[in-house]
Design brief:
The chain is of the alpha/beta class. The protein is 35% helix and 22% strand. The strands form two sheets. The protein has a six-stranded parallel β-sheet, with helices on both faces. It has a four-stranded mixed β-sheet with strand order 1-4-2-3. Helix 1 runs parallel beside helix 2. Residues 1-5 have low confidence and may be disordered.
Length: 247
């Protein structure tokens, strides 16, 4: 199979992977065939760990599938399908559109389908960008790109080392922070005017306590059924449109 048929988020083979790491390309994880320790693989793993790239042992058949016939030599890198933006890029996007910043902050969303769906809703609702953490979060993978249905091409996604520090920077620029949690104020009673950032927490644990402390307002969606929570991407979509409606 020809090289062009390989997925755009996969770099396969020892030399290509090493060059991808050296170049500073955004790499989500290093995939190594179980038991593979020969030749340059050890050096590649060490280089990846030095740059805090997660290393995962996988079945060689998974590498065969991802590499699509390319000789992967027991190693592949799963890369971001798009380069990450910065907080400055997101603010510039708002400035270029002549609008007060409208930003989505994701506190450790782990499911790539949720991340892709949130990016899609963010684009449709007119958000200027999405912020995700470097660790314990889904990244800009092939699945995220597909689930976003093209929205990833238009929405800047910034990856930051620390969500709390990023929120503090937004607040210093006059952005009001709204956290989504089931123990908050009914979202219909909240005024979302002006520069706004919406924080959506982890699928299971919600917003972390440190991040919650930085929020100016905690908002919730009333639950009228038997269960007490919505899927993260569904809740995000509802709240995004509520914010958009007041803009």
């Amino acid at each position: 199979m020809e090289q062009e048929n390989i997925r755009n988020d996969i770099v396969a083979g020892r030399n290509p992977v090493m060059e991808a790491i050296r170049s500073g390309r955004a790499i989500e994880s290093l995939l190594v065939a179980k038991g593979e320790k020969s030749g340059s693989v050890v050096a590649i793993i060490a280089k990846a760990k030095k740059q805090n790239i997660p290393v995962k042992e996988v079945d060689p058949k998974k590498l065969d599938f991802l590499a699509k016939g390319i000789s992967h030599q027991g190693i592949a890198a799963q890369c971001a399908v798009k380069e990450y933006s910065t907080l400055e890029d997101i603010f510039k996007n708002a400035e270029d559109r002549g609008e007060a910043p409208f930003i989505i902050i994701l506190d450790k969303i782990e499911d790539p389908h949720n991340l892709g769906a949130i990016i899609r809703s963010a684009e449709c609702a007119g958000a200027h960008g999405v912020i995700i953490p470097e660790r314990r979060s889904a990244g800009l993978s092939y699945t995220v790109e597909k689930t976003s249905a093209g929205a990833l091409e238009y929405v800047p996604v910034a990856r930051v080392k620390n969500i709390t520090a990023a929120i503090q920077k937004l607040k210093s620029k006059g952005v009001w922070i709204y956290g989504a949690d089931m123990d908050g104020q009914n979202y219909k009673e909240v005024n979302f005017d002006g520069a706004a950032a919406l924080v959506i927490g982890n699928e299971g644990k919600g917003i972390s306590p440190l991040v919650a402390k930085e929020c100016d307002v905690i908002v919730s969606l009333p639950m009228r059924g038997k269960i007490n929570s919505l899927n993260a991407s569904v809740a995000a979509g509802i709240l995004m449109y509520e914010i958009a409606n007041g803009r």
